[in-house]
Specification:
- Helix content is about 10%, strand content about 45%.
- It folds into two domains: about 450 residues, Beta Barrel (Porin); about 70 residues, no CATH class.
- It has an 18-stranded antiparallel β-barrel. Strands 1, 4, 6, 8 and 9 form a five-stranded mixed sheet that branches.
- It is built from nine helices and 31 strands.
- The longest helix is centred in the N-terminal third of the chain and has 16 residues.
- The chain is mostly beta strands.
Length: about 625
């Protein structure tokens, strides 16, 4: 059910936001306070790429890997620049075909403008490249021992030795003659394979390596363990959700005008699952594209009766594809638009489309004041958090099963229509202030229930939860935010949101919810107050990264109460550098994270998504991270 906005009310909201220029807002279409903490000042990093004779090198790809990944290409004078890097440490590398990669350097960015020292690349000598290795069945069958030429040209590795000494059959000997004849004439391979055949014949043993050797890879590999608990004493009991091992791999590399990334994670146990995603981003230009896709799967082999009944054929599959474009019409006007298409195999209506669009206006080029108007429609399935890649924090595959609290209604998707006007401004001292006003219309607001006891069943373990619909709600609200980045790299923010909501349709699962969590049933108008703070810092001596979010809200649902009341949620993550394990440019880190927040940040999520999570468990993640 969709209720349109009146032009008069929308115009009034825009006027209020535009008149609040001194206290500008985060430019994100997001009512949740968590998403408002990311507006931070940006730093610049400059440098020069030279060869071993001191001459500038053009076309070298320079990468900076840290809290974000950025790429730049050196110009004709060898100069490169990164225009927007958040404060923190970055691993800087330079790559150019025909030159040996320079050793990675760690640069700490803690002021608005930084200058990196010159990066020197050494030209490859002939001896720096692996010599061609004859494949099995290609080349002469006999090798003359003690030849000086062979000693200089052959690879002495074990794999190459085995390839040279494999037995050859009649067909392989015949193929050798054919290749030699073709090589003499130069027509067979050139005409048939366009010259590629000679490269394959010359070095088949290292074909894959040679194709990828010049690519400036950046990657990350995680070995993690994850578990959840309701109370601290549960960690010492059998009621705790059994720990699961998680493996995660990420690869990123630049392309012409942008860069692509591939990520994947998997876990095994009674719930085996994996999640893969790929994305491509075009470098800053008139049109900045961001496109990608992801696919998640879970298969349940446990003994939970509700999970077995809800998981069709023992597994679930979710696919997502998206595309967005930021079109800079001129320096003062930017238009953003795009959509996400998702397919959930466990829904009756499997295909869900979520479009959005926004306009950002900068009245003056010499001022940081910006105004943004945004409109979006987000359609989400119950349990989507298990399959959609997170926007921040550790990457975890689907780890929990879920089922509807009422089998008669099944899974019903949530639809959020969101309109927002916001403004922000940066002041002296890297202080950013913001103000925003928004309105939401939500159909079938999702409820998430942990640890509840359905009549006639046992209490659900933390590895399984129930979902339901809380009905329809209209919400109007406003918010203010303040954030600052200090010279030492500490970033802190505080965000306050005030919402008045009106529940316009009763929950279709009201009877079932009244038995397990009556506080999620809302029938009247209510006021919601939300206060969220965050701190992010890197200790310069120990290279310890700390990130913490603490949220206080007046209307968190409670399974044991007849009415919702004040509550808190948190998210804490600690990354400790392990420099004694670093080698070959790789960085080792120890990761420990604990959180009670269930939902990740969504740009256009309902304000009630987190509020209607009952008994959100504490999730603990720990392990080792390797960046290379």
């Amino acid at each position: 059910m969709i209720r349109p906005f009146t032009p008069l009310s929308l115009a009034a909201v825009m006027c209020v936001a535009a008149s609040a220029a001194p206290a500008s807002a985060q430019l994100r279409p997001q009512p949740q306070a968590i998403a408002q903490v990311v507006a931070l000042p940006q730093a610049e990093l400059y440098g020069t790429v030279l060869d071993d004779h001191g001459e500038p090198l053009a076309g070298a790809v320079v990468s900076a890997l840290g809290s974000t990944t950025a790429f730049a290409v050196s110009d004709s004078d060898g100069r490169f620049a990164f225009r927007s890097l958040p404060y923190g440490p970055y691993l800087v590398r330079a790559h150019l075909q025909g030159y040996l990669p320079a050793r990675a350097r760690l640069i700490q960015i803690n002021r608005a403008s930084n200058t990196a020292s010159t990066v020197v690349l050494t030209r490859r000598a002939d001896g720096d490249r692996p010599a061609p290795v004859l494949a099995a069945g290609v080349g002469p069958a006999e090798v003359v021992a003690g030849s000086d030429d062979e000693a200089e040209t052959h690879d002495h590795g074990e794999v190459a030795w085995r390839l040279r000494h494999l037995k050859r059959s009649v067909l392989k000997d015949a193929a050798t003659g054919l290749i030699e004849a073709a090589g003499a004439s130069g027509s067979f391979l050139d005409d048939s394979l366009g010259g590629l055949g000679r490269a394959v014949v010359g070095s088949p043993a290292r074909l894959a390596t040679s194709l990828l050797a010049e690519v400036p890879w950046n990657g990350q590999f995680d070995l993690l363990t994850s578990t959840s608990f309701d109370r601290p004493q549960d960690l010492l009991s059998m009621q705790t959700w059994l720990p699961r091992g998680v493996a995660f791999l990420s690869l990123e590399a630049p392309t012409g005008g942008g860069h692509w990334a591939m990520r994947g994670a998997m876990t095994q146990g009674d719930l085996s699952s994996w999640l893969v995603a790929g994305s491509y981003q075009r470098a800053p230009a008139v049109h900045r594209y961001d496109a990608g896709l992801s696919y998640g799967m879970q298969r349940y082999l446990g003994g939970n009766a509700d999970a077995l009944a809800a998981v069709s054929e023992g597994g679930r599959n979710v696919g997502v594809i998206y595309g967005y474009d930021d079109w800079t019409i001129n320096p003062r006007l930017t238009v953003s638009y795009g959509a996400k298409y998702a397919r959930y195999d466990y829904l009756a209506q499997q295909a869900l489309l979520s479009p959005r669009a926004s306009v950002t206006v900068t009245p003056s080029e010499n001022d940081s004041f910006k105004v943004r108007a945004a409109v979006s429609r987000r359609t989400a399935a119950p349990g989507a958090e298990e399959f959609i890649p997170p926007s921040s924090g550790p990457w975890l595959p689907p780890e929990r099963t879920f089922s509807p609290v009422s089998s008669s209604h099944g899974f019903v998707p949530e639809q959020v229509d969101h309109v927002e006007v916001a403004a922000e401004r940066e002041w002296a001292g890297h202080i950013v202030t913001g103000v925003r006003a928004f309105r939401q219309t939500v159909d079938d607001q999702i409820v998430t229930l942990f640890g509840v006891v359905r009549p006639g069943t046992a209490a659900a373990r933390l590895g399984h939860y129930y979902v339901a619909s809380a009905g329809d709600v209209d919400a109007r609200g406003w918010g203010v935010s303040v954030s600052r980045t200090t010279a030492t790299g500490i970033r802190a923010s505080i965000d306050y949101t005030n919402v008045r909501s009106n529940w316009v349709r009763r929950s279709p699962d009201a009877e079932a919810l009244a038995l397990v969590a009556v506080s999620v049933l809302r029938d009247n108008d209510e006021r919601v107050h939300d206060l969220t703070t965050s701190v992010e810092s890197t200790l310069p001596v120990t290279e310890t990264k700390v990130f913490a979010v603490y949220r206080i809200n007046s209307r968190f649902a409670d399974a044991g109460a007849a009415a919702a009341g004040p509550g808190t949620r948190f998210d804490v993550q600690l990354n400790q550098s392990l420099p004694f394990l670093n080698f070959s440019g790789a960085q080792w880190e120890m990761l420990v994270a604990i959180r009670s927040l269930f939902h990740d940040d969504f740009l256009d999520a309902s304000i009630y998504d987190e509020l209607l999570v009952v008994r959100s468990p504490k999730r603990v993640v720990g392990g080792v991270t390797v960046r290379f």
